[in-house]
Design a protein that fits this description.
The complex is a heterodimer of chains A (about 190) and B (about 140).
Chain A lengths: L7 H11 L2 H29 L5 E3 L14 E5 L11 E5 L6 E11 L5 E6 L18 E2 L3 E9 L4 H8 L1 H17 L4
Antiparallel strand pairs in A: 1-2, 2-7, 3-4, 3-7, 4-5, 5-6
Chain B lengths: L1 E9 L6 E11 L1 E2 L2 E2 L5 E12 L6 E12 L5 E8 L4 E2 L11 E11 L2 E2 L2 E10 L12
The chains are: A alpha+beta (about 190), B mainly beta (about 140).
């Protein structure tokens, strides 16, 4: 009769041992190609939009009810696009890495194009002066990551979960890696 | 779209502070249709003052804003509103400035998709007086 039936874990290892080196290298190259293509698309987006970070996730509730934590924003940062009151901009405070998504409520622009502006979150009582660097009262063009042009709700939640629960991120990467390495070419 | 305003400036050390009281009568439409279609989650309305000064070629200050959710009445009928935010100029460019224009604009926030900024038709020019107001308390 047959021996004890093998569980799915044993089958996995059986597969791995059966694959010869050449197949393994092939799968790894396949995986590398997918990763490279993704990176190329991202770099391409950076070039096309002019923004160093063309897609950002909303991290706080300071723009509710328009945007909630986990929403995805699509940005452009064209050099000739003027900054005007009412626009939603994503900016970084000098020295900090976290992008903030708020609305422009005041601008003062000189004839030569130099502009200084003030921002405020829709859901905040006060303007952002408290968020800026010590002694900084205005933002300038160089602080802008981009202007929000479009948005998708909820989709960015995945990044937030991966950030808050790193174990989830590793688990996801492990599953993805296993899928790619073990995918059989028919 | 009609606005009536009353205004004066108060002296401050370095920058003029403007005070504006206004009425707004407005009907927010998208062409001829209602602005709130299936993909409009809310509107962010704001009243901004735009003007030029010696110091700066272009200044825009948001004086008042309001969030209008889908389901709210797209008609505005507000009287004797005070500006929500301090109308500071960067300098002393409000005194005697005849060309301060108030415009009502709105940001359409969709359920998903593009975020357009629309400026309403109709704007009002607000000339500021040549002297500072010292009698009114503020």
């Amino acid at each position: 009769g047959r021996g004890p039936s093998r569980g799915p874990a044993m089958d996995l290892f059986g597969d791995l041992r059966r694959m010869n080196k050449r197949q393994l290298y092939y799968q790894v190259l396949n995986f590398a190609m997918i990763v490279s293509s993704a990176l190329m698309i991202w770099k391409g987006l950076i070039v096309v939009t002019g923004s160093e970070s063309p897609i950002v996730v909303v991290l706080s509730g300071s723009m509710e009810p328009a945007f909630h934590r986990g929403d995805l924003l699509f940005l452009t940062n064209f050099h000739d696009d003027p900054i005007r009151a009412g626009e939603i901009v994503v900016f970084k405070v000098e020295g900090r890495d976290i992008p903030i998504v708020h609305r422009v409520i005041k601008i003062h622009e000189k004839e030569n194009g130099n502009i200084k502006f003030l921002t405020k979150g829709d859901n905040n009582e006060v303007d952002d002066r408290g968020l800026y660097k010590e002694g900084q009262n205005w933002l300038e063009k160089k602080d802008v990551v981009g202007r929000a042009r479009g948005f998708l709700p909820y989709v960015g939640m995945v990044t937030i979960i991966m950030n808050d629960y790193p174990k989830f991120k590793y688990a996801l990467l492990a599953v993805m890696g296993a899928c790619v390495l073990l995918k059989r070419e028919s | 779209l009609r606005k009536n305003v009353e205004d004066f400036t108060g002296p401050r050390e370095r920058s003029d502070l403007g005070f504006v009281t206004f009425d707004i009568t407005a009907d927010i439409l998208n062409g001829k249709k209602c602005i709130f279609d299936w993909n409009v989650k809310q509107l962010f309305l704001y009243l901004s003052a735009e003007y030029s000064t010696k110091n700066n070629a272009l200044n825009q200050v948001v004086l008042w804003d309001k969030i209008m959710l889908r389901g709210d009445n797209p008609r505005l009928f507000l009287k004797d509103m005070q500006s929500k935010y301090f109308f500071f100029d960067d300098g002393n460019g409000l005194k005697g400035n005849r060309n301060v224009t108030l415009t009502l604009s709105w940001n359409v926030v969709p359920n998903a998709g593009i975020l357009p900024l629309v400026t309403g038709s109709g704007h009002v020019s607000v000339p500021f007086p040549d002297t500072y107001e010292t009698r009114k308390s503020y």
